[in-house]
Amino acid sequence: MRHSWKSSVGLAGLLAATGALAHHSVVAEYDVDRPVSISGAIKRVEWQNPHIWYYIDVKEKDGAVSEWGVSGGAPGQLMRRGITKDVLQIGAVVSVEGFQARDGSKNMTGRKVTFPDGRNVFTAGPEPAR
């Protein structure tokens, strides 16, 4: 019985540590020294924990269209600010400011989303950029 109890405690500790490692700082994945701004139409929105993701079709200088993935805050954090999934409508043209992924991919953490009418929302989590 004693061995079983120790194994259970060890397993619980391992699982807790794994969960803690899964959550990461914005600066671990995104380069806050590499600000980026993109514009395009919202292609899809994934409104789920741990972070929302929305995807923007961006027209490049050569005319090609690239899909950018934009990470935002947790749904609960955003909803407490009055930002719901309905704010990010498929097909809406937006400009997004944030920080590009450290690996240089077309992936960013979105901070501010601006709509053509000048309205904007802050889709990032509560963590400061630095």
Structural key phrases:
single chain, 130 residues, alpha+beta, 5-stranded mixed beta barrel, 3 helices, 24% helix
The amount of helix comes to 10-25%
Structure summary, number of beta strands: 6
Mean pLDDT: 83
Largest sheet, in brief, is: 5 strands, mixed, barrel
- SS-derived structural category: alpha+beta
N to C succession of SSEs = HHEEEHEEE
Into which percentage range does the β-strand content fall? 35-45%
Radius of gyration from CA coordinates = 18 Å
How many H/I helices? Answer: 3
- State the end-to-end CA separation: 49 Å
- Uncertain runs are 7-22
In short:
Helices cover 24% and strands 39% of the residues. It has 130 residues and is α+β, with helices and mostly antiparallel strands. It has a 5-stranded mixed β-barrel with strand order 1-2-3-5-4.
What does this structure look like?
Helix content is 24%, strand content 39%. It has three helices and six strands. It has 130 residues and is an alpha+beta fold. It has a five-stranded mixed β-barrel. About 12% of the residues have low confidence.
